[in-house]
Amino acid sequence: SPVLKIEDLHVSVDGKEIVRGLDLTVKGGEIHAIMGPNGTGKSTLAAALMGHPRYEVTGGRVTLDGEDILAMSVDERARAGLFLAMQYPAEVPGVSNANFLRTALNARLGEGNEIPVIKFHRMLQEKMKQLGIDPSFAERYLNEGFSGGEKKRNEILQLAMLNPRIAILDEIDSGLDIDALRIVADAVNAVRSPERGFLIITHYQRLLEYIVPDHVHVMMQGRIVKSGDRELARELERKGYDWLKQELGIVD
Ligand code: ADP
Ligand code: MG
Ligand code: MG
Question: Which residues form the ABC transporter domain (predicted)?
């Protein structure tokens, strides 16, 4: 079972420190939610964990099962089992979903371990069925002309295919109506596993009524300032973030 350990992480963007000493441990079977006001560094944390080149780690440690993630390339991180689903999935004209997924899966499996084409298509059909995704999805171009809900569901299909050990979901609920939200949440719940840990980033509590987290953390000014369980998320929904800033003496 995986263990992602983040210790005293500092991340800068364009020379400005955004993540400022963040500690968090996510284990297999656990769902951690990170909430917080806009602009507090949640997406910066996700991007830095995945190795996005614009996000410079200036201090701290991140390990997956004791292996130094920060020393790995983006591909190596994916191969180690890290996965990021994003708020705004990219559209890739001319590349079918199936082709994109096969390339991503083979990158995850590594050279010499590529999946045979027929086996891949069988696996894809099985996962799509499991997630209630229409078979025609496979041959459509990646995210092109997809509705918001379809894009998000497609990210969960990627997750199911790549079988990551730690999945980071950054605002996958943004822009979804309640029906689409339920579908995406059901898809996430379908791929919950003791062998997989989740880090779910969300601005709103709504998603967490459908994907019930074990731990809820509030991020402000680049740090986790409070942790609790799902009740903390509900309290934030009722009272907003300002009371917490006051309670903690945070001035921005
Ligand atoms: P959150 O996800 O919590 O809303 P972000 O991590 O997106 O916050 O942003 C935190 C801060 O970092 C913001 O002030 C934002 O302007 C800055 N920032 C993040 N990413 C970039 C980027 N690629 N280029 C410039 N500034 C960025
Ligand atoms: Mg934001
Ligand atoms: Mg964000």
Answer: 4-246
Global pTM value: 0.93
CATH class of 3-91+164-248: alpha beta
88 lines ligand 1 (CB under 6 A): no
Q: What is the ipTM of this complex?
A: 0.92
Answer yes or no: is the C-beta of 40 below 6 A from any ligand 1 atom: yes
Nearest CA owner, ligand 1 atom 20:
44
Residue pLDDT, tens place only, 59-88: 999 999 999 999 999 889 999 999 988 766
Can you tell me which atom of ligand 1 is nearest the CA of 171?
2
pLDDT of residue 87: 65
Q: Where are the chain's structural domains?
A: 3-91+164-248
- Could you say which ligand is closest to the alpha carbon of residue 54? 1
Of the two residues 181 and 218, the one the predictor is more confident about is 218
Q: Which residues lie at CB < 5 A from ion ligand 3?
A: 42-43
